[in-house]
Amino acid sequence: MPTQPTGETPPLDGSLPASAGTGADARGLSLYVHVPYCRVRCGYCDFNTYTAEDLGPGASRDDYRSNLARELDLSTHVLAEAGAGDREVTTVFFGGGTPTMLAAEVLAGVMDDIRDRYRLAPDVEVTTEANPDTLDPAYIATLAAAGFTRISLGMQSAVPHVLATLDRTHDPEKIPDVAKWIKEAGLELSLDLIYGTPGESIDDWRRSLDVALINDVDHISAYSLIIEPGTKMGAMVRRGELPMPDEDDLADKYEIADSAMTAAGLHWYEVSNWSTSAETRCDHNMAYWRNADWWGFGPGAHSHIGGVRFWNAKHPRAWSDRLLAGDSPAIGREVLGESTQEIERIMLAARIDSELRLDSLGQGSDRAIRGFVKQGLLDAAAVDEGRFEPTLQGRLMADYMVRILTDYVD
């Protein structure tokens, strides 16, 4: 698992500096709920997850809702004291781990607990990630009745040997059935894919895209595999048992994905995300990319309120013990300076189609922009209109452009 960032120690009561409330009314508020439980721990995953056997009483699935309710109570108090409360919540996202390792009634109950404490927007987007093997029509119907609006299905691949390398346990043959159940319940369907797994051929990747696109999908996220050093897969690569993903192969697969999705009526709006329309984009992720305010609940969850970033104790036992003692579960925080916030704004906005306004960049950046156009990385017509619109090649080179543009931040 990744180590927590370093930062200052926050107050035990979780209180925020006065600056966190400045301008809060003009910023959106989103909630993230981290559910750390998984059936098995996938070899590539470095998220904060645990199997049921890892955890005892007090930190188990049976204790999760009551522990979370304590953090919900704390959050509303902290936000009110900072002058950042009393705002509509526009998105709620359950991530993990595998949130659907909890009973559907528990997830529905957590949504009840959130409604008891927060004012939700009439069109609030409520998403949960899910493993295909944890869902059936009754489970999905319970979520729909509880106000969930999207399910983000961890498909990853349609090819058995690729799933085996990733340690994914679900049956790929079940994907069309689960997709059908989700749409029949009136929920939006998002599929998550991973490309670049060792041993995955171009034909394997095309097969996964074909299976994803024959379903009535609203949204697809496609991420290249990243080998994290602290994972089982990272150790296998280090020992020479698996090869590192090849950069040229990853670029080829990205281009294949973009072509296939465009042909199927999905259009990119962020470097790794495609949707059928602006209405089916993931608004929760857009809140992250726009540096809006969000509170992250659960073990290891991160939050960002008014330029203050803070994070919870990682282990479910440490998280629950702090809450049971009446303390905040936050163990570290960072108050971001103006230049850091500006660098992050550029880093995030540059990945989104036409999100970054050229007139918002530092003095002298126009020369770099002209260079990007000459290199074929930015759309020339969009630049004439003051918009930063990466071409297909530009999306592959987004990090390169960001490194240059952030040099102009004072």
Describe this structure in words.
- The protein has 410 residues and is of the alpha/beta class.
- The chain folds into two domains: 18-289, Aldolase class I (TIM Barrel), CATH 3.20.20.70; 337-410, no CATH class.
- It is built from 15 helices and 14 strands.
- It has helices spanning 61-81, 104-117, 137-145, 160-166, 175-184, 202-214, 232-238, 247-263, 283-289, 316-324, 338-349, 365-374, 380-384, 392-396, 398-405, and strands at 29-35, 37-38, 50-51, 88-96, 119-130, 150-156, 188-195, 219-224, 267-270, 273-275, 293-297, 302-305, 308-312, 330-335.
- α6 runs parallel beside α8.
- The model has no long low-confidence stretch (mean pLDDT 92).
Helix proportion range: 25-40%
CATH level 1 class label of the largest domain: Alpha Beta
Beta-strand content:
15-25%
Q: Give Rg in angstroms.
A: 21 Å
Report the sheet with the most strands, covering strand number, pairing sense and barrel closure. Answer: 9 strands, mixed
CATH architecture of the largest domain: Alpha-Beta Barrel
Shape: globular
Supply database-style keywords.
nine-stranded mixed β-sheet, alpha/beta, TIM Barrel, three-stranded antiparallel β-sheet, single chain, 410 residues, 2 domains
Give the secondary structure arrangement, pairings included:
Blueprint: E1 29-35, E2 37-38, E3 50-51, H1 61-81, E4 88-96, H2 104-117, E5 119-130, H3 137-145, E6 150-156, H4 160-166, H5 175-184, E7 188-195, H6 202-214, E8 219-224, H7 232-238, H8 247-263, E9 267-270, E10 273-275, H9 283-289, E11 293-297, E12 302-305, E13 308-312, H10 316-324, E14 330-335, H11 338-349, H12 365-374, H13 380-384, H14 392-396, H15 398-405
Parallel strand pairs: 1-4, 1-11, 2-3, 4-5, 5-6, 6-7, 7-8
Antiparallel strand pairs: 8-10, 9-10, 12-13, 13-14
Helix pairs in contact: 1-2, 2-3, 6-8
